[in-house]
Amino acid sequence: MISIRRARPGDAAAVAAVHVAAWRSTYAGILRDGYLADLSEIRLAGFYQRAILDRREGHAVFVATATPEDESGLPQVVGFASGGRARRRGLAEGEVETLYVLDDYRERGCGRRLMRAMAAHLRAIGCNSAMAWVLEANPSRFFYRHLGGRTAMREAIRVAGQAVDQIALLWDPIDTLLAATAPLPQGRPQGGPQRRLREEG
């Protein structure tokens, strides 16, 4: 069973592990192998512990947890999302800053449910629109577009000294994102076209 909840400081190490695994999977062939190999779970755990505790600008972190099918162990963090009021003014009022899901839990609704949690949070703190930055080469852009995100801006940035392009995907009004991530009716399969879309990694 997969559940979504607000992250706690004790989740920081697990969130960092998801970050590293997801980046190495998603950005292989996009970012340099050496940079991905050098990602540090220890360093990122410190970063995420601070992020989880940071409530400025409405910042929040949500985690997706999964209980083993045989219920033999404690729930494990398998994905997370973070965001708050937009870091860059002018495009949208709120921003989904990160959304990462482990490979084994993609296409199982984790990304959609994390996006809904973030959208509901942003709406609760008064944001009437939302955006997310995505590397243009990241196949996860199709996941965001499937949820109604439209390209609002494109720019060149540098990641670890490497030039890459990123796009800003916009939901305005934010109700479009809430509608796109609404729970599926009971009995409706999660297959079909959306099943083939790669959730953010």
Q: How would you sum up this structure, described in words?
A:
The chain is of the alpha+beta class and 201 residues long. The chain has helices at residues 12-26, 33-37, 41-53, 110-124, 141-146, 175-180, and strands spanning 2-6, 60-66, 76-85, 94-101, 130-135, 150-159, 162-171. A 7-stranded mixed sheet has the order 1-2-3-4-5-7-6, sandwiched between helices. The longest helix has 15 residues, at 12-26.
Provide a short characterization of the protein structure.
It is built from 6 helices and 7 strands; from the N terminus they run E-H-H-H-E-E-E-H-E-H-E-E-H. With 201 residues, the chain is of the alpha+beta class. The two termini are 20 Å apart.
Protein topology:
Blueprint: E1 2-6, H1 12-26, H2 33-37, H3 41-53, E2 60-66, E3 76-85, E4 94-101, H4 110-124, E5 130-135, H5 141-146, E6 150-159, E7 162-171, H6 175-180
Parallel strand pairs: 4-5
Antiparallel strand pairs: 1-2, 2-3, 3-4, 5-7, 6-7
Helix pairs in contact: 1-3
